[in-house]
Amino acid sequence: MTDVFGLPHKDSGPVGTTGSTQPRHEQVVFCSDERSGLYAIIAIYSTALGPGLGGTRFYPYESEQAALADVLNLSRAMAYKNALAGLDLGGAKAVIIGDPETDKSEALLRAYGRFVQSLGGRYYTACDVGTYSEDMDVIARECAYVTGRSPEYGGAGDSSILTAFGVFQGMRAAVRHRYGTTSLAGKRVGIEGVGKVGARLVDHLIEEGAEVVICDVNEQAIDRVRRRHPAVEVVGDAAELITADLDIYAPCALGGSLNDETAPRLRAKIVCGAANNQLAHPGVEKQLAERGILYAPDYVVNAGGVIQVADEIHGFDMARARAKASKIFDTTLRIFELAAEEGVPPGVAADRLAERRMSEVGRLRGIWLRS
Ligand SMILES: NC(=O)c1ccc[n+]([C@@H]2O[C@H](COP(=O)([O-])OP(=O)(O)OC[C@H]3O[C@@H](n4cnc5c(N)ncnc54)[C@H](O)[C@@H]3O)[C@@H](O)[C@H]2O)c1
Which domains does the chain have, with CATH numbers? Predict the structure, then answer.
């Protein structure tokens, strides 16, 4: 099962189902409109911190069960991510079952928008796999609770801008924790995948004086980076990057790049990248820790994108969103410190911190105020 936003560690089984030890989801809504072909599931995990925000994934799931499992996991992951991003937003997510290439239509998206609207603001949607800003603009014709819109409609535009910036902040925190300095000058950073986020990350690193090594399966993506930064080194593939002489390894392609085979071969001392679910399973983090490798939890350092789109709710302001994304530095550092204090891996410390905020700040909502 893929997971764009990255799953918290405790999620080793199905969530929100009978018999699970996990808290249940607040609300799960099945939405069907036969005439447009819409079949969607919206899952709201928690609104303890505010309305649930999470993207709409348009994907040809093999079964309704697979779609349900995905949306339950993804919505829970969003609650953790939004909590640690310091947002006053809960966690939610939606899936539309179908092939976006053939099944997407104005009627379907607008029908979906009406269902989102029916939740009265408990759920804010955004882009995810298979949905784009233009789709959000269509959904918004029926619904007030839409982010990730195109800039012509006041949207935040390409979320990879602050995703890359946030990963860079996470890297600075990791270097500070490990070496006592926040400067990346002279550090050798390997980036796997120089697409939207990876390429912007190269810009930040070069500006900071780091040495950058990249790989990508797409030659054009490599060429684009080399044209901007001729000094960037290129290696053949991800396997070569893993064993390269690096200080920092930044997975920015697909999930699962660190697994039982690759983790023992990694030579870098820090892992910090944008990809979701970088660790094939939670045990990989233990393997990294045993080898003295510091892992910056993916869902913490890649939260810049959600911070960027969430800002649209208040009328998008890049300077404000960027200021908020810069706090990823402090959060990441705090997670490393908590992990050291409590003797747990950073991923576990991150989950604990998110749960603490949801419980402590969410509790305040129980104190009634006239609205
Ligand atoms: N864009 C965002 O705002 C955002 C936010 C949070 C998380 N993420 C995650 O960050 C990662 C990158 O996102 P993106 O928006 O840059 O995606 P993208 O599709 O623009 O870039 C991914 C790049 O990885 C390359 N790639 C794929 N397989 C590879 C492999 N085996 N080895 C090397 N390179 C490979 C692709 O060719 C592409 O250039 C994804 O995992 C995404 O889920 C992105």
Answer: 27-77+90-153 (3.40.50.10860), 160-303+331-352 (3.40.50.720)
Identify the bridge partners of residue 353 per DSSP, sorted by sequence position.
Answer: none
**Residue located nearest, by CA, to atom 11 of ligand 1:** 275
Contact assessment for residue 53 and residue 92, using Cβ atoms and an 8 Å cutoff: yes
Counting from 1 in the atom list of ligand 1, the atom nearest the Cα of 162 is 3
Is 197 among the annotated ligand-binding positions? Answer: yes
Banded model confidence at residue 5, pLDDT cuts 50, 70, 90: very low
Residue ranges of the alpha helices (H) in 147-237?
160-179, 196-208, 219-228
Vertex 355, ends 351 and 361: CA angle to 5°?
145
- Count CA atoms within 13 Å of residue 329 on its CB side: 14
The answer to whether residues 194 and 252 touch, using CB atoms and an 8 Å cutoff, is yes
Helix (H, G, I), strand (E, B) or coil at 144: coil
Q: For residue 111, how far is its CA from the centre of ligand 1 (angstroms)?
A: 30
| pLDDT given for residue 86 in this prediction | 97
Among residues 123, 139, 136, 81, the alpha carbon closest in space to that of 305 is found at 81
Q: Whose CA is nearest to atom 3 of ligand 1?
A: 160
Cβ contacts of 66 within 8 Å, gap of 6 or more = 1
Interval 206-242: pLDDT, tens = 999 999 999 999 999 999 999 999 999 999 999 999 9
* pLDDT value for 331: 98
* pLDDT tens digits, one per residue of 114-149: 999 999 999 999 999 899 999 999 999 999 999 999
| Euclidean distance between CA atoms 260 and 9, whole angstroms | 17
